[in-house]
Design a protein that fits this description.
InterPro entries: Fmt, Formyl_trans_C, Formyl_transf_N, Formyl_transf_N_sf, Formyl_transferase-like_C_sf, GART_AS, Met-tRNA-FMT_C, Met-tRNA-FMT_N. Belongs to the Fmt family. GO terms for molecular function: methionyl-tRNA formyltransferase activity. Keywords: Protein biosynthesis, Transferase. By secondary structure, this protein is of the alpha/beta class. The chain has 2 domains: about 200 residues, Rossmann fold, CATH 3.40.50; about 90 residues, Roll (Methionyl-tRNA Fmet Formyltransferase, Chain A, domain 2), CATH 3.10.25.10. About 25% of the residues lie in helices and about 25% in strands. The protein contains 8 helices and 16 strands. The strands form 4 sheets. A 7-stranded mixed beta sheet has the order 5-2-1-6-7-9-10. Strands 12, 13, 14, 15 and 16 form a 5-stranded antiparallel beta sheet that branches. A two-stranded antiparallel sheet has the order 3-4. Strand 6, helix 4 and strand 7 form a beta-alpha-beta unit. The longest helix is centred in the middle third of the chain and has 24 residues.
Length: about 300
């Protein structure tokens, strides 16, 4: 029989998993998500992507400010769930919540644990130059992504992929993986394996201060830094435009087999030298402007050598 589930998630990344669980006939007793926040020019309250999808599906939505109060625990218990599925919910769950569903709480995490536990696993994997990443389903405990692993799915990270590309691919893989894990749980066949104590790394939150591009690094490191921060917060540099330094985010680039002084423009096609090799900008965004292709940018803002970025 399909399971009665509580789903807990907030961003776009969580939506495919919710849709897959519904499509496979599981009963979603309630969706827990973060409360709506003001956004946009009018600062209207904007529900999370998960809340929008849940309401479209007619699923009851809960947006508690905390799940640690006696009232929140009582309400959670009242759903009488077989299990909870957690995907980027954004709140730490106390032991009392973890112990409530009959079969436990199961989290989808966007890394190959124990590598990249924590807040920003997709960004950190790309920025570190990892060749591979993936998604894992684990049974949750009170530690930070320390629970026993049930299933995993792997994928290659190419140098052409940005954080947005990897995010979307893992979101699709994750929905499929969680459905398979919950199916195995339903049949009493889900096997759990303890995480290794070797190879533990932590994906700390991305800080704005680390977004500035350092041209004194090899081209591949520069490319992975740019792609790991694309589209948000966006790796940036200052370009001289009409005689003034203007902050420009670089959103996508490619490596070019050329050399020069780090930060130097090597041609009028946005090819910039790094410590070893060079990168060519493909997509970028001026401060206050929409993202654009390099060709479009150059039509309005020609950049010609000799110019050097610092």
């Amino acid at each position: 029989m399909p399971l009665r589930l509580i789903f807990m998630g907030t961003p776009d990344f969580a939506v495919p998993t919710l849709l897959e669980l519904v499509a496979h006939g599981h009963e979603i007793a309630a969706v827990y998500t973060r409360a709506a926040k003001p956004a946009g020019r009018g600062m209207k309250l904007q529900p999370t992507p998960v809340e929008q999808e849940a309401r479209r599906l007619g699923i009851p939505v809960e947006t508690p400010m905390s799940v640690k109060t006696p009232e929140a625990l009582e309400k959670f218990r009242a759903h009488n769930a077989d299990a909870a599925v957690v995907v980027a919910y954004g709140m730490i769950l106390p032991q009392a919540i973890l112990d409530t569903p009959k079969l436990g709480c199961f989290n989808l995490h966007a890394s190959l644990l124990p590598r990249w536990r924590g807040a920003a696993p997709i960004n950190r994997a790309i920025m570190a130059g990892d060749r591979e990443t993936g998604v894992m389903v684990m049974k949750m405990d009170v530690g930070l992504d320390t629970g026993d692993v049930a299933m995993a799915e792997r994928m290659t990270i190419t140098d052409a992929m940005t954080a947005a590309d990897v995010h979307d691919a893992l979101a699709r893989l994750g929905g499929d993986l969680m459905v398979r894990a919950i199916g195995a749980l339903e049949r009493g066949m889900l096997q759990l394996t303890k995480q290794s104590e070797a190879g533990i790394t932590y994906a700390t939150k991305i800080e704005k201060a680390e977004a500035r591009i350092d041209w004194n690094k090899p081209a591949r490191e520069v490319l992975r830094h740019i792609h790991g921060l694309s589209p948000f917060p966006g790796a940036w540099c200052e370009m001289p435009i009409e005689g003034e330094p203007v902050r420009v985010k670089i959103l996508r680039c490619e490596m070019i087999d050329r050399s020069g002084v780090p930060g130097e423009f090597l041609d009028d096609h946005l090819t910039i030298a790094c410590q070893q090799g060079a990168i060519r900008i493909l997509d970028l965004q001026r401060a206050g402007k929409a993202p654009m292709k390099a060709d479009e940018f150059l039509r309005g803002t020609p950049i010609k050598p000799p110019i050097r970025l610092t």
